[in-house]
Write a structure and sequence with these properties.
Blueprint (H helix, E strand, L loop, with lengths): L2 H9 L3 H4 L1 H31 L6 H36 L5 H17 L4 H14 L1
Length: 133
């Protein structure tokens, strides 16, 4: 294994640290979904007993799934689109993702200066070439 590969492995964060936001979000999702299941089942059972009936899983599941999909449609799908859309636009290079480009340019400029090359001079040369084409 080369030194670059070893450095890259060392610089990677541990799984739990790298994906902590996603793991916490997933935990919130599961807790809220289980909570919805439990409290909706209690409400369904209470409503059935108020009308002289009994709780039936066959009747409960369609009700639970319908309310779940209503919640997902109104909340989770909007959130997923916002996250997925932001990710797509970031990778496509929208104006919101310019921060990464600026950071990359700063690193390249630092490397050029380290080798005794003036980055501003290179920018001028690049502009002249672009104008002459």
């Amino acid at each position: 294994m080369s030194d670059a590969q070893t450095d890259e492995k060392r610089s990677r964060p541990v799984f739990w640290k790298a994906y902590s936001f996603g793991l916490v979000t997933g935990a919130f999702f599961l807790v809220s979904w289980v909570g919805q299941f439990v409290f909706q089942a209690i409400g369904f059972a209470n409503e059935a007993s108020d009308h002289g009936g009994t709780f039936s899983w066959a009747e409960y599941w369609p009700d639970f799934l319908a309310s779940t999909f209503e919640n997902w449609q109104s909340e989770f799908l909007q959130l997923i689109w916002q996250a997925a859309g932001l990710m797509l636009f970031y990778f496509w290079g929208s104006s919101q993702s310019r921060e990464g480009d600026q950071r990359l340019e700063a690193k390249v400029d630092a490397l050029l200066r380290e080798r005794g090359i003036d980055p501003v001079g290179i920018d001028r040369q690049t502009r002249k070439l672009a104008e002459s084409e």
